[in-house]
Design brief:
Blueprint lengths: L1 E6 L6 E6 L9 E10 L1 H8 L15 E9 L9 E5 L14 E4 L4 E3 L6 H23 L9 E3 L5 H12 L4 E5 L5 H7 L1 E6 L15 E6 L3 H9 L1 E9 L13 H6 L2 E4 L7 H12 L4 H5 L2 E4 L4 H9 L6 E4 L3
Parallel strand pairs: 8-9, 8-11, 9-10, 11-12, 12-13, 14-15
Antiparallel strand pairs: 1-2, 3-4, 3-6, 3-15, 4-5, 5-7
The protein binds NADPH dihydro-nicotinamide-adenine-dinucleotide phosphate.
The site of NADPH dihydro-nicotinamide-adenine-dinucleotide phosphate has 32 residues, from helix 1, helix 2 and helix 3.
Length: about 325
C-alpha cells in the first residue's frame, strides 16, 4: 500500500487515499518518491479551476524526484536516483503527488550526482522552465550589454528562478510582482528594481517608451501586451505562462517597427537530450542559489489548501511535497 492525493468527481475533489500496488498504472518502472513539486498547473488540477485533467479519479503532480524501487526496463535498476518532469504526467498520466508511482522509462531523467532530491524539486518544472527561458534568450543573441531584462510573476516558481539565473549571468534584472511585501526577497535574488504588477495591468498604447532588452513573461494577457510595447529595438521576450490570462491583446507594431521577437517556451515535450543538458546546467549552478530560495515543504494532507493559496496568488517560491 502507498498513499496518494487522488482527485474525484465528487466533493471533496482532492482526498488522500491508500492505493494497493495493483491500483497503480501498469507501467515498467516503480519509483519511490522522495520529493514532488506543487506547480501552478497542479494547483489548477487540484482545485478544478483549470482543465488540466480529463479523466477522474486521478493522481496529479507534474514533477517528482525519487529512487527506482523496481524496473522491467534495462535502462533503470533498483536504487537509481531519478527525476521526472513533463510528458503529460500529472495531466494525462498519473503523477507525482504520491508516495510511489509507476512510469515509463523514457519519461525519466537520471538525477545528476551533485543534485539531491530536494534540490532537484526546489528547481522542479519551475527551475527547468526558467533555465529554458534563459537558454532561449541566449540562443536568440541576448547579452547583458544590450540592456535590462524584466521578469513577471517574479515571486512565483518560474519567475523567482528566472530572476536569480539572469542576475547570476550578469543581467540587470527588473522584477514585476503583485506582492509589495516581497521586495526585499526579490532584491536578495538579484533584482535591481522591483515594479508593482498593477503598473503593467492597464491597457497601454501599441508602442511605449523602450525600456527592456529582454523579458521572461509568466503572466500573458495585458501584462505581456504591455511588455511587448516597451521592448527596445531587437528586444527578445520569452513567453512561458498565463497567470494573467491566455489571451494576448496586442498589435503587430512591436514586431514590425522594433523587430521584437516573441519566443515560446515549453517544458513538457522537450526532447531527452535537451532535457538532460538543462538538468546538468541546473545541477552546476552554485549551491548558494538554493539558500536564497523560499521553500515550503508540506505533507499530502496540506496540498489541497496550498493549491488554493497558489491560485489566489498567496504563495511565494516553491512548495514541495515530502510524501513520507
Ligand atoms: P506560481 O504560482 O509559482 O507563480 C505564478 C506567479 O504569477 C505568482 O506567484 C504571481 O507572482 C503571479 N501572478 C499570480 N496571479 C497573477 C495575475 N492575475 N496576473 C499576473 N501575475 C499573476 O506558478 P509557476 O511559477 O509554477 O508558473 C508560472 C506560469 O508559468 C503559469 O502560468 C504556469 O502555467 C506557466 N508554466 C509554463 C510552463 C511551460 O512549459 N510553458 C512550465 C511551468 C509553468 P507575483 O505576485 O510576484 O506577481
Amino acid at each position: 500500500m502507498s498513499r496518494a492525493l487522488m482527485l474525484h468527481e465528487e466533493t471533496p475533489r482532492a482526498r488522500v487515499v491508500d492505493l494497493s500496488d495493483d491500483q497503480l498504472p501498469d507501467l515498467p518502472v516503480t519509483v519511490a518518491i522522495e520529493r514532488s513539486g506543487l506547480n501552478y498547473k497542479d494547483a489548477l488540477a487540484i482545485t478544478g479551476r483549470g482543465k488540466i485533467v480529463r479523466e477522474l479519479p486521478f493522481v496529479p503532480g507534474i514533477d517528482f524526484a525519487g529512487r527506482v524501487e523496481a524496473s522491467d526496463s534495462p535502462d533503470y535498476q533498483p536504487g537509481d536516483e531519478v527525476l521526472l518532469t513533463g510528458w503529460g504526467v500529472g495531466e494525462r498520466h498519473w503523477g507525482g503527488l504520491a508516495e510511489r508511482m509507476r512510469v515509463k522509462p523514457e519519461w525519466l531523467v537520471k538525477r545528476p550526482a551533485n543534485l539531491s532530491a530536494e534540490q532537484a524539486m526546489a528547481f522542479g518544472t519551475a527551475g527547468l522552465t526558467a533555465m529554458l527561458c534563459v537558454m532561449r534568450l541566449e540562443e536568440a543573441g541576448l547579452t547583458p550589454e544590450q540592456g535590462p531584462v524584466i521578469v513577471t510573476g517574479a515571486t512565483g516558481g518560474v519567475g523567482s528562478w528566472a530572476v536569480q539565473m539572469l542576475a547570476r549571468q550578469g543581467f540587470e534584472v527588473h522584477a514585476v510582482s503583485g506582492k509589495a511585501e516581497q521586495r526585499e526577497w526579490l532584491e536578495s535574488l538579484g533584482a535591481s528594481e522591483v515594479h508593482l504588477r498593477s503598473d503593467f495591468e492597464d491597457k497601454g498604447r501599441p508602442l511605449e517608451k523602450s525600456r527592456w532588452a529582454g523579458a521572461v513573461d509568466t503572466a500573458g494577457g495585458q501584462v505581456l501586451a504591455n511588455l511587448l510595447a516597451q521592448m527596445n529595438y531587437d528586444g527578445k521576450v520569452a513567453a512561458v505562462g498565463l497567470a494573467a490570462g491566455a489571451d494576448l491583446p496586442t498589435s503587430v507594431m512591436p514586431f514590425i517597427l522594433r523587430g521584437v521577437s516573441l519566443l515560446g517556451v515549453d517544458s513538457v515535450m522537450i526532447n531527452a537530450e535537451r532535457r538532460q543538458k538543462v538538468w546538468q546546467r541546473l545541477a552546476d549552478l552554485p549551491d548558494e542559489m538554493h539558500a536564497q530560495m523560499q521553500l515550503e515543504t508540506v505533507g499530502l494532507e496540506s496540498l489541497a489548501e496550498r493549491a488554493e493559496a497558489m491560485i489566489d496568488g498567496r504563495v511565494s517560491g516553491r512548495v514541495l511535497l515530502d510524501p513520507t
